[in-house]
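Final paragraph of the annual report: two paired records, presented back to back.
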Amino acid sequence: MHARFLDAYALTLWADLPDNEPYLWDHLAEHLLAAEADLAFAEQREPSDVSLRLLIRNFANMGHLLNRFSTYTEIAAVLLSRLMHLQELSDLYQASEQDMPRPYLASGTCCQTCQIQH
């Protein structure tokens, strides 16, 4: 239900959400976390999908962090920082990192482009 609600906005990036959407800006993290139930449902349908299991486990582990932030940039930075080390999710991470609003803090390398170790 939450995923359908979020999908109804048909945005490629949450950063494109208009400023005149105060409800969603105030409750975006809650709806994203609630959509985790959709991940659990998907896992039941595709129990052998390793990437899906990793996403579910990592979303559960970072829920307390996601609840602290209120903007897309903050939430996206946390998601990326928590997923970047997982080789199985590298395609998802790389696609998301390209769309990440700049500047942002990252651990390990500052971005896929420059590959500078910090």
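The closing record of the year follows.
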Amino acid sequence: MKIAIIGYGRMGKMIEEAAVAKGHTVGLIIDLNNQADLTVQNLTGHDVAIEFTTPSAACQNITVCFDADIPVVCGTTGWLDRIPGIKERCLSENHAFVYSSNFSIGVNILFHINSHLAKLIDPYDQYKPSIEEIHHTKKLDSPSGTAISLAQQIMNEINRFKNWKLTETPDSQTLPIKALRADDITGIHEVIYESDVDTISIKHSAKSRKGFVQGIMMAAEFIVNKKGFYTMEDVLGLT
């Protein structure tokens, strides 16, 4: 594959290294110093674009890729309110797009278990769910996109919760999320169901960013020559 990397921070550099190690070619790298180089002309001839930037930049970056009819793998979080518009354009104009709030294979297995567990617990309102996430101090969004995805899955299955909130003192209709920041923490996510008599929890701890990069490369290889809007559940065959 010939890959365009949009966003060249720590993750972008790891993606470049992984792509080259797998025999792929990186034809274009966009960072803060050359944003004007993200053009339809410069994207022409690439098989896929991998976008990891900021919430304020993601939508425009994806739009340019769609204009060039280049498949996009996007892992930028913090802009979920604009995803429906991207999905609508992707489907109506027959583009290709993979989005995930977390590309780790393990986290996406956690997502799958999380939905099923919430469905099982739904009849038992004595169990009070909460989510806790811990990340490094340089993480820009809080709570993490992964924590929000976990919360949304729970709300889809347990109807008594109407929203989530970054709080430790929720009301009966609010799913609480606790977000902590500490040095050298790649990412920890835990879903906890507490009752008066017991606790049920599921947890994922990332040891490094390598797990994310493995999933990103899987998604990039998956989306080439496809059309449509996909998630990591599609990539991993969990749907």
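Residues 129 and 193 are 4 Å apart (CA to CA). This concludes the annual technical report; the extension proposal builds directly on these records.
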